[in-house]
Design goal:
The protein is an alpha+beta fold. About 30% of the residues lie in helices and about 35% in strands. The protein has helices spanning about 10-25, 35-45, 95-110, 125-130, and strands at about 1-5, 50-55, 60-70, 80-85, 115-120, 135-145, 150-160. A hairpin with a 2-residue loop joins strand 6 (about 135-145) and strand 7 (about 150-160).
């Protein structure tokens, strides 16, 4: 697996992976599919201080991860939200470890202070991965998302860099 900074070249794969999550899971509460142009704007908004990485297997994007602004308010500048997604065929193979480790290092290098994870109920694999890298539970938001005709809880986790 090769991990590198995401570029516009990776956007078709990033978009496909994310759209699959939108259509088939509660890993994201987005309900509208994204276009490559949407993802280009998203990537441009990240800049150097908010890393976006891709995991490549045989030169194909197997997954991606990002650290995104938590809030536009200046006092939150050192606080970010983590996202990590893998293509369906790449899930459950241990690739998340390498991508998580690289993303946390990139966050430290960028001078970020704390990372917030919002993980929807039932995503025990994601909770396990985050705990493995030092994230601690900070609470559960009950029934804050509505997707696939049901309300979904969100588990909050945090890591101080």
């Amino acid at each position: 697996m090769i991990i590198q900074k995401a570029t516009v070249h990776h956007l078709p794969s990033i978009t496909a992976i994310y759209n699959h999550a939108i259509e088939h899971s509660v890993a994201t509460f987005d309900t509208e599919l994204k276009t490559i142009d949407d993802r280009k704007t998203w990537l441009d908004e990240h800049g150097d201080n908010y890393p976006v990485l891709v995991a490549l297997i045989n030169d194909e994007v197997a997954g991606w991860a990002s650290l995104s602004k938590w809030s536009p308010r200046a006092a939150y500048n050192g606080t970010v939200e983590i996202s990590i997604y893998f293509a369906a065929q790449s899930q459950g193979k241990g690739y998340g470890n390498g991508l998580m480790k690289a993303l946390l290092e990139a966050g430290k290098k960028a001078g970020l202070h704390t990372i917030i994870a919002r993980i929807s109920e039932g995503n025990e694999v994601s909770i396990y991965l985050h705990k493995k890298y030092g994230f601690v539970p900070t609470g559960t938001l009950k029934e804050v998302g509505y997707k696939f005709n049901r309300y979904v809880d969100v588990h909050m986790m945090q890591l101080m860099l």
